[in-house]
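Final report, closing paragraph on structural work. Over the funding period we assembled a curated collection of sequence-structure pairs, and we close with a single example.
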Amino acid sequence: MVQVKKAEMRQTIIDVATDEFMKKGYENASLRVIAQKSHTTLGNIYHYFKNKEILLETIVLPVLDNIDALMDEHIQNYKANVLSKEELLYYTEHLEEYVEKFEFRCLFDKRVVIILELKSSHLLKRKEEIIDKIQKHLQEHYHLNDDAHYAKIVLDVLTDCLKHVLIEHEDMDDAKREFIKLFRLFCTGVMGQMI
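Its predicted structure, as stored:
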């Protein structure tokens, strides 16, 4: 019975911290507020998590690992597969299928907002490595010239769209539908600029 209560308290702390990190950012979230909202003490939080960084790792590492693994799989499967304008249009029109079947699915997790907003943590380097990997892959897929930093601009817009839908929609199906709408709108503009 005591172990169940400990597990419940640990999960409550994780849930409250996830919400606080998402809404306020990791850097601005307070462990005192997390303790208060978890109906426990600051000392009890330290009993479960050595420090704020360990709490962050507990929350976001599974998501980072998942995104990293799925991106590696995607890149391996589509390496050097430069998409034509027609292929991009086809994928854009059938995006619902691809969001469910492929790597996009790992992005529809509220913890992604925490990762995207992260500004200081030893996990920042890992986040930047994944973003760099995605950016380079976008460059290949969309025929983007790196000199103009178009891949970064595309990725920045897509991450802003993702953050927006994850924050605005509690229901992940609603978030996916909204993201698909925004992604289609953006991709249509990008495809219009392709030579």
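The first helix runs from residue 2 to 24. The mean pLDDT is 83. We thank the funder for supporting this effort.
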